[in-house]
Amino acid sequence: MPGLLLDTLNGKRGTSVPLWLMRQAGRYLPEYRALREERGGFLAMAYDSEAACEITLQPIDRFGFDGAILFSDILIVPHAIGQHLEFLAGEGPKLSPRLVDVALDALTRDPSRYEPIYETVRLCRQRLPETVTMLGFAGSPWTVATYMVAGEGSRDQHEARALSYRDPAKLDAILQRIVTETIEYLSGQIEAGAEAVQLFDSWAGSLAPDEFERLVIAPNAAIVAALRERHPATPVIGFPKGAGEKLPAYARETGVQAVGVDETLDPNWVARELPAGMPVQGNFDPLLLLAGSDRLESRARDVLEAFADRPHVFNLGHGIDRRTPIGHVERLIATVRGFKG
């Protein structure tokens, strides 16, 4: 029996609004911090299917969200393509060798790195209530490419953007490889039990409009088309953070079934500009959730009212901050659950 979230992603508007939060399984939860202390670092837990499943289910057990998002990372794909991946305390993820320095064919593919992720999905789907939607995910090609090229994250994605202008054929080859891997990776998640998947494009906002068309819209459209052919019943959520005024074109041209919206956009504008009837996800500010001021409830209601005439999944404009108090999350949930659109 499909749950409220899956129904909404399939275009049905009910009397209640489904709710899940990006990074809902993570460091703001004391049970996550305790498990990490016991099991080790982030990457070790992502590849430990039992631990990753337990983490995925922690926010469901505590809050009763409508969706469980796989505990993993977008850099599993470059790790499987053949780059070395490590997470350094205080520095974030590091990939080597950097593709700004070496050719793509210098890497040796290791698809076995996907297997623990598929097992996590299988375990979670077995243990979740049937009305809770199991969500898989992957990074979108542009965002993944920025890490592969530079070997790490950056504020302006300088290395990848410069490579796009200096040697577009090299960047296009990297993107195509990520597209091919991502299709296989998300297909594997779906076959393991994911009922919907999300493409995270965290760095989509750094591109000029013509580059956005080439580097964001076209690769995502290729992934969505392949997934729709293989798994026509599985919705794909596209989340191009920072897309701004380019969001409607992304929604129309990529073929995604639902669009995630960050907190920088006016939800009333989004409701007007997106294709009629398209499900939308977002766009509550994670920093307002962290602050927990008197505006928390009123802003949540503003978002809910803005999207009241279309299928809407309540979510944040990006991931929950690790310093967010549990009580603030509970206030937000109560506001969303109490809303009658």
Q: Would you summarize the structure shown here?
A:
Belongs to the uroporphyrinogen decarboxylase family. This protein is α/β, with parallel strands linked by helices.
Q: Span from first to last CA? A: 24 Å
Helix/strand structural class = alpha/beta
Q: How many runs of DSSP E, i.e. beta strands?
A: 9
The helix content is: 40-55%
Low-confidence stretches: none
Physical arrangement of strands within the biggest beta sheet: 1-4-5-6-7-8-9
What proportion of the residues form beta strands (DSSP E)?
5-15%
- The CATH level-2 architecture is identified as Alpha-Beta Barrel
Figure out the total of helices: 15
Mean of residue pLDDT values: 96
Cα-atom radius of gyration: 19 Å
What's the level 1 CATH class?
Alpha Beta
CATH topology name, in short, is TIM Barrel
Write down the secondary-structure element order.
Answer: HHHHEHEEHEHHHEHEHEHEHHEH
The global form is globular
Organism: Qipengyuania qiaonensis
Domain Uroporphyrinogen decarboxylase (URO-D): 18-27, 135-151
Pfam families: URO-D
Keywords: Cytoplasm, Decarboxylase, Lyase, Porphyrin biosynthesis
